[in-house]
UniProtKB/TrEMBL annotation:
Endpoints of the signal sequence: 1-19
Name of the protein in question: serine-type D-Ala-D-Ala carboxypeptidase
Residue span(s) of domain Peptidase S11 D-Ala-D-Ala carboxypeptidase A C-terminal: 271-361
Transmembrane segments: none
Record organism: Devosia crocina
GO term, biological process aspect, one: cell wall organization
UniProt function note: Removes C-terminal D-alanyl residues from sugar-peptide cell wall precursors.
Highest taxon, organism lineage: Bacteria
EC code(s) of this entry: 3.4.16.4
Record carries keyword Protein biosynthesis: no
Length: 380
């Protein structure tokens, strides 16, 4: 398959709106992402700030799973139910709860299951206090890990997603967080597809109703507040392909389920997969000003597979966008650019591109030559 490439210099960091590609959603915010490559198939206000509500608990779980992996806690550890956890997140709060009893002790595994299945606010607070002493300290751990993952559009102030003006995320960040959990913690992922959980004599169904509708959904998390509306981070696996979707800002649980189902079904059926670039294959080159080398190769993170509208191979073109000029040093693996794939001038997919090798600062002659070039010609 041949793509016509145009190399462009972007001077703004904002991503363009993804072409609707014959799909519309009632969700205020939406993303559909290929799990393997992270390429975006559909987006709607993907980088706008949103109130994540209980989808915040995915970040809580990311911290918990890291603590388990690093051996600082175990699934059999028991954490104490404080008055704060009981009062803020328990039955008396009126929110989602596991009905944990005040002053009781609960196994970490049961708390994890409650956070995922019941969206238990009390369970999330108990985990936060059990790991970090206070929820505020735990929120600092959440933000530290969020930065490591690359969730630059997010800030967390609590473990539950209860409303706070300083807590926010984006649909893109939530999708990337979902990918992180699936990729890094396969040993815990089975919890997300459990249909129900009983605690304290009360049985509650998984709030992600799409798990049981037969379209391969096996996670991840729903959320709702009165101000934010209804949202969900959803994943489905069919054959060798997995998609991660986010829909948010909807008016009801029923609409949330329907819009999520429509987006995943469209993404599964309306697109074909094409292997475009093998891992390490150079997609394009970006100019480096004053570097030891005048350019750096751009590669994907692993293979780059294109998901394109069925029957559309003849319509394709692509461009690579980056902020120019690049200044050394450039580090191998540094995200440099974005590949954008078009069908009949409509954007149908985007994928990040990374530096293929280090480019240190050049010697005095190289820097002087590039300076003269810029003075004479400008940076084209």
């Amino acid at each position: 398959m041949r793509l016509l490439f145009v190399l462009l210099f972007a001077i703004a960091s904002a991503f363009p709106a993804m072409a609707q590609a014959n799909f519309e959603t009632n969700a205020r915010f939406a993303v559909l992402m290929d799990y393997e490559s992270g390429t975006v198939i559909f987006q709607k206000d993907a980088d706008a700030r949103l109130e994540p509500a209980s989808m915040t608990k995915l970040m809580t779980l990311a911290v918990v799973f890291n603590e388990l992996r690093n051996g600082r806690i175990t699934l059999d550890d028991e954490f104490f139910v404080s008055e704060n956890a009981w009062r803020t997140g328990g039955a008396a709060s009126g929110g989602s709860t596991m009905f944990a009893e005040l002053n009781s002790r609960i196994r970490v595994e049961d708390l994890i299951r409650s956070v995922i299945i019941q969206s238990g606010n009390d369970a999330a607070i108990v985990l936060a206090e059990g790991i970090a002493g206070t929820e505020a300290t735990f929120a600092s751990m959440m933000n530290q890990l969020a930065r490591q993952i690359g969730l630059d559009g997010s800030n967390f102030t609590n473990s539950t997603g209860l409303p706070d003006p300083d807590e926010y995320s984006t649909a893109r960040d939530l999708a990337d967080l979902g990918r992180y959990l699936i990729r890094e913690f396969p040993e815990f992922y089975h919890y997300f597809s459990e249909p129900e959980m009983e605690w304290n004599g009360i049985n509650q169904a998984n709030r992600n109703s799409l798990i049981e509708v037969g379209i391969g959904v096996d996670g991840l998390k729903t959320g709702h507040t009165n101000a934010a509306g209804y949202g969900a981070v959803i994943s489905t696996a069919q054959g060798d392909r997995r998609l991660v979707a986010v829909v948010h800002g909807l008016g009801s649980m029923r609409e949330r389920a329907e819009e999520g189902r429509k987006l995943l079904t469209w993404g599964t059926r309306a697109f074909e997969r094409f292997e475009a670039y093998a891992e390490g294959a150079v997609v394009a080159y970006a100019d480096v000003y004053g570097g030891e080398s005048s350019s750096v190769g751009l590669v994907g993170q692993g293979d780059i597979a294109l998901y394109l509208p069925r029957g559309s191979r003849d319509c394709l073109s692509a461009s690579v966008h980056y902020v120019a000029p690049l200044m050394p040093p450039v580090a191998a693996g540094q995200q440099i650019a974005e590949l954008r794939v078009f069908c009949n001038d409509q954007l149908v997919q985007s994928a990040p591109l990374y530096a293929a090798q280090d480019v240190p600062q050049g010697d005095l002659v190289r820097r002087a030559t590039d300076a003269l070039k810029q003075l004479a010609l400008g940076w084209l």
